[in-house]
Description:
98 residues; mainly alpha; 63% helix
Amino acid sequence: MSKEPRKEEFKKAWKExxxxxxxxxxxxxxxxxxxxxxxxxxESAPQCDHTLRETxxxxxxxxxxxxxxxxxxxxxxGYCDCEVIYNVDDKFGEIVGR
Length: 98
Ligand SMILES: [Zn+2]
């Protein structure tokens, strides 16, 4: 039996559940997602033009499912290339090993 207060236990379990949900939602391989973040975050990246241009280019180059991945990015606040870094990387970066 754990000596942790029940509240902490619940919190932990809930957090783990949320994490599992996030992991299950990712519509591409972790490797591809990590590479996408690195690609958008690279030093020579052009300034964001408030579209997902760079993101979509990357997905197409890899032959990934743009039609599934773009709505997923938006769901997590990634409406343009820089928001993918600010919002989506923030939430999923650690999961995919950034
Ligand atoms: Zn932007």
